[in-house]
Amino acid sequence: MDERTAAAIEVHGLAGRGLKGEAELRGRMRGMDLRIATCMPLPEVDVDEELLLRCLREHGVRARMVAWNDPTQEWEQPLPTLLRSTWDYFHDLPAFRAWLARVHAAAPLWNPLAVVESNLHKDYLLALEARGVAVVPTELLRRGGEPALEPLLRRRGWRRFVLKPAVGAGSFVTRRFEAAELEAGEAFLREQLALRDMLVQPFLDSVDGHGERALVWIDGEFTHAVRKTPRFSGQDERVSAALPLEADERALGEQALAPLREQLLYARVDVARDAGGRVCVMELELVEPSLFLRQSPPALQRLGAALARRLG
Questions:
Q1: Is 2 exposed, middle or buried, given 0-12, 13-18 or 19+ CB atoms closer than 10 A?
Q2: Taking residues 287-306, what's their average pLDDT?
Q3: Is residue 118 part of a domain?
Q4: Which range marks the domain in which residue 81 is found?
Q5: How far, in Å, CA of 34 to CA of 311, rounded?
Q6: Is there a domain that residue 86 lies in?
Q7: Are 128 and 258 in contact (CB under 8 A)?
Q8: Does residue 43 sit in the same domain as residue 8?
Q9: Is 303 within 8 Å of 266 (Cβ atoms)?
Q10: How confident is the model over 6-38, as pLDDT tens digits?
């Protein structure tokens, strides 16, 4: 009996049943193979990777990390795929979409293809707003357009503002500007609009105090929140310990996820408070968000159990 099987027998409560226990376990584990999609090279360390792999082993799941952009992989194999740290996808969105279609055609993809496709471009914020979900006010400027930043800011009454790509991850080309930096903001925006769609948003003062908060949702319920420091291009992210969700945060998160909740394995709703104290969605992360599993062992176990159940 190998060490992994022996350890799994203990986890599944089959110790003391010898070969019968081993055979029963192997029967349970048949078909419980999983690919976890990452990228190469990783732009930053995924601190949850080893935790998740260990947790899955404890649940009898044989999981391995595979880079979505590794040309040697045979994605047509009928193995379920879990999206996790594909954090460079925005650099080649057509290739990523083609890869998603290949994986989806072969076996289950989590989160599922339709959900992922709907979340790749941050115009989903406008769709949320149209549905009555409170979001950070957002202006979408299309690639190739004129920046016209000064009249936009005057019309909106924004003095401090953030410019970010409509397709991106981490802090990629995300910058904050003050009113006195309008000329620099317009130059940056003009440069970026030559390459991609961009968002213009007000900078919410609350993120410097109360903080931006990430609400983590796994397998049907919110598990925990963390406070994140503001993050712009070239900066590291600092994250708090696990925190309970506040009542209005939970209500907003539930509203944002309501049409999709039956399709989701995981989600993250990033929120902050506006000048009036109202909580607003900053981003709805359904593709490859960090779930801050290190901060919440119960959330880690919930994800491991949910995957084992889907694979079993």
A1: exposed
A2: 98
A3: no
A4: 3-113+299-311
A5: 8
A6: yes
A7: no
A8: yes
A9: yes
A10: 433 343 344 444 445 444 444 444 468 999 999
